[in-house]
Amino acid sequence: MAKAAGKDVDQRDTRARILAAARATFAEHGYSGASVSKIARRAGVLAGSLYWAFPSKEALFAAVLTEASEAWRARFIKAPDPSPAIDEIRVDIRKIASGFAEAPEFLRLLMVVATEHQAGAPEIRAAAIEIRRSWRASIESGLVAGLAGHPPDAVAALARRISRLVIQLLDGVFMSLQFEQAELGPDALIAEVADVVQRELDFGVRALEAGA
After folding, report:
1. Residue 72: which domain range?
2. Cβ atoms 145, 158 nearer than 8 A
3. CATH number of the structural domain spanning residue 147
4. How far is CA 14 from CA 42, 86, 131, in A?
């Protein structure tokens, strides 16, 4: 029994080392440039051990995306408040935006999915789509809770629009950080995103109040 428990611990440790090595290697070299042998060497395991833990390179990349998303989410996206004030939601959006500058590795992984044809396997794209869907759902749930008391359909439509806008703007921030850092730093880019979202949110809230 003790041997079995020890084996389980060893297997979990091996899997964790492979994930950590793959995450760094994919972020540095992209999908096509991150060979299985390169990941295995970085993890300190044989290539066969990697295939023992993950059935394919595609499955490994999908697992890396999911794990990185969960870690990023825990750091930058708080659990929905049952009744947040709109000002608190603005602060939360700014914090999410700041994560794009403070922890860019995960965002590079998403960009790999978007730009590398070889990273477009169905299971990888499904993982990336689910990650983005969950981000939007977190933003929408906070807005819906903060705007309780207004017509539900109108609130839901506003929440969808704002969540979509946040993700689209943050996509742009990430690209700008890759190419235009000398022109505008992360703090300035994030402030611009937050200002745009705040204006749209304020406009939407005023429309809700006018229609009440």
Report:
1. 57-211
2. no
3. 1.10.357.10
4. 12, 45, 25
Cβ(174)–Cβ(96) under 8 Å?
no
- At 89, the amino acid letter reads I
Alpha carbons within 13 angstroms on the beta-carbon side of residue 13 total: 8
| Residues forming beta bridges with residue 150, ordered by sequence position | 148
Q: Round to whole Å and give the CA distance between 24 and 109.
A: 9
Residues with Cβ within 8 Å of 67's Cβ and at least 6 positions away in sequence, in order, are 19, 23
pLDDT tens digits for range 114-161: 888 888 888 898 888 888 888 888 888 888 888 888 899 999 999 999
Instruction: Kindly report, residue by residue over 8-33, the tens digit of the pLDDT.
Output: 557 788 899 999 999 999 988 999 99
Q: Would you give the DSSP letter of residue 120?
A: -
SS (H, E, C) 24-57: HHHHHHHHHHCCHHHHHHHHCCCHHHHHHHCCCH
CATH code at position 34: 1.10.10.60
State whether residue 78 is helix, strand or coil: coil
Q: What is the pTM of this model?
A: 0.75
The secondary structure of 124-146 as a DSSP string is HHHHHHHHHHHHHHHHHHHHHHH
The 10 Å Cβ neighbour count of residue 113 is: 20
At 81, list the tokens.
Answer: 């408040």
